[in-house]
Amino acid sequence: MKVAFVYIAPDIRGGTERAIAETSKRLEKMGCEVKLFCNRFNKETALPELVEMDKQVVPHRLSLFGRFRMYYSMKAVRAATLVASKWNPDIILLGAGFLWSKYILKGINTPAVSRVHVPVPIEHSLLNRVYRKFTRLDVIEKQSLVYKPIVCNSKYTQSMILKLEPNAKTEVVYAGVDSAFFTPTWEDEGYVYLNGRFQSYKNQLLAIRALKNSGYKLVLSGYANPRVKEEVRYFELLKKEADNCSNIEFVIDPDKSKIRELYQRSSLVLVTSVGDPFPLVMLEAMACGKPVAGLNSGGIPELIENVGLLFENDPIDLRKKVEILMNDSKLRKELGKKARAVAESFTWERTATQFYEIFKREIEKQRFSN
User: Fold this and answer.
1) Where in this chain does the record put each Glycosyl transferase family domain (predicted)?
2) Domain contains 170
3) Would you give the DSSP letter of residue 299?
4) Whole-model pTM?
5) Each residue's pLDDT tens digit, 307-343
6) How many structural domains compose the chain?
7) Alpha-carbon span 279 to 3, nearest angstrom
8) Strand duo 191-195 + 170-172: pairing
9) Quick one: 19 and 47 in the same domain?
10) 160 and 200, same domain (yes or no)
């Protein structure tokens, strides 16, 4: 089976990029030939696994002086998909553009499936609504939501899509975690750990405000993409908020092994993202046998309901939950063991197998219809 993955710019080291690398690796072990088609790829900032992956870059404008990103992204994914179709794949996986699949796949007869891994836009400003009507994006989205199957990375994502279109063809395929790499050492060095790219929706600011000048050490790791001004500004804001706080430490751009070490030595892990459908850091922390305190938002409650604590988007509530866990080592160990057991069931092999079955079904469906 030839599988074409289509993405816009998978050249950062985020959860989506990790999912591409791990899923494609398992599909190849199952006998598939996988090729990545994208509009931009910077090997200096990308995951090593994606640098090595067979790929074709189809350059395309992604905005007009920083504006109209949605419109130009739609055009870019269309361009990459047209090139992908000439490779004669058996199936196309749209890793971007599920809201525009009707336009992207116009004139392409190859079976296709969309994958959603980002927050789903539900509400739009007045200006954006006018812009969407002028560019016909609203019509394209309505048609696309019922055009091809949409694979969601969480039940939360699925519920958001069904709010947009109750008749959308959706199913959930969870990401996995490499439990052979992310393993428990059962160390506990008394600090709270938060890992994630420095983006405003990752909400690290909440953790800093909750724990600065407290009796708890907070370690934050991640990086800000220097090409993205919003990320650079947000990182500067985080550093300013943590200025002169001796209990807050930043670890900039750690590699995978360093991240594992930081998980393993921590007492608990925070997940503060707002509206994040399914942060992979949850699974990584759980695989390392750590209790997780997570924001009651997005897809976070789906995973940590029985292996951690939830808090609201409020510094006082976050600090209360940290205090509960930090003051009870027995509870931390108990939740950590439960977390490890749950994480072991979330394998990349399961993720790849589910995608493979979906691909087979869609290929057979198209053959039958032809």
Assistant:
1) 187-341
2) yes
3) T
4) 0.91
5) 899 999 999 999 999 999 999 999 999 999 999 999 9
6) 2
7) 25
8) unpaired
9) yes
10) no
